Amino acid sequence: MGAKDLSVNSDPAVSQPPARRRSPFHAVKFFVFCHSLLQLAQLLVSGYMKSSISTIERRYGFSSQKSGLLAAFNEVGNTVLIVFVSFFGSRVHRPRFIGGGALLACVASLLMALPHFVGEAYDYTGRVSTSGENSSGLCQSESPVTASSNQSCSRREGPAQLGAYPLLLLGQLLLGIAAVPIQPFGISFIDDYASRKNSPLYLGILLAVTSIGPAVGFITGSLMLRFYVDFDKLSGDQIRLDHKDLRWVGAWWLGFLMASGLLFLTALPYLFFPSSMPKEVPQRTRTSVPENRFL
């Protein structure tokens, strides 16, 4: 009888629970939670960029060709590196690579907002007001436009505009590179350590976040663009434009700062995840193990 009691009390699962079970960083569910937040923040930047590209074009006088190239430039780094990163995925510390990609996206978002702080304030005096119903948003030439004189309503690019475009291109390129390890490594890591029963659920959650992220970015863009672009440089009395005036430029840079903060916060947990974790055990198997011990 005493030996039986000793064998029951010496059960390691009862007397000394493993330390790994106490840490959320050894649970695949917590990894799914962190990865959902990271993908939401990363795709928020993508949606926000698309919602504010017309505002950036108006602010710096970019042509439609430059704006289109800027909007699609993040796919360059992603397309070039996705094959190589996916091939070496099983040989590296995947959570840390995901965290590194998130930190790189954080830096890229800051870089996207940098032209606002290094450039001059927005000058709308040389543009056409459109507060009336019959006003036009096109520039107007004082003299007749002729082909021989080569006079046209073209946008003028000053030093600030010329310096802003390379920074925005570099930020978009880094955003594309940063996105390379996030989704492939995250999906493969979850598939390796999730149970067969829960793996489809976890992957479905990630796919749902993939659809929600850009929508959140568009909503964020609609909110941020209600603020004047230079509200941090000018007082309220100095801002003499309203939303109805087509010279109005919203605070396009503010969303990138917010996204950068979110990316930084969501990147921190990946520094503590191990390179591998115990395979997730279904709940049914866990409950059936104690019953077999008394047979």
What does this 3D model show about the protein?
- It is a single chain.
- The protein starts with a helix and ends with a helix.
- The chain has twelve helices and no strands.
- By secondary structure, the chain is mostly helical.
- The longest helix is centred in the first third of the chain and has 33 residues.
- The protein has a domain of 179 residues: Growth Hormone, Chain: A, CATH 1.20.1250.
- InterPro entries: MFS_dom, MFS_trans_sf, OATP.
- It comes from Gasterosteus aculeatus aculeatus (three-spined stickleback).
- Keywords: Disulfide bond, Membrane, Transmembrane, Transmembrane helix.
Explain briefly what this protein structure is:
This protein is an all-alpha fold and 295 residues long. Helix content is 62%, strand content 0%. The protein has twelve helices and no strands.
Q: What kind of oligomer do you see?
A: single chain
Q: How much of the residues is beta strand, in percent?
A: under 5%
CATH class of the domain at 25-120 and 157-217 and 253-274: Mainly Alpha
CATH fold assignment of the domain at 25-120 and 157-217 and 253-274: Growth Hormone, Chain: A
- Give the overall form: elongated
Instruction: Bin the helical content.
Output: 55-70%
Protein name: Solute carrier organic anion transporter family, member 2B1
Keywords: Disulfide bond, Membrane, Transmembrane, Transmembrane helix
Membrane topology: Multi-pass membrane protein
GO molecular function: bile acid transmembrane transporter activity; sodium-independent organic anion transmembrane transporter activity
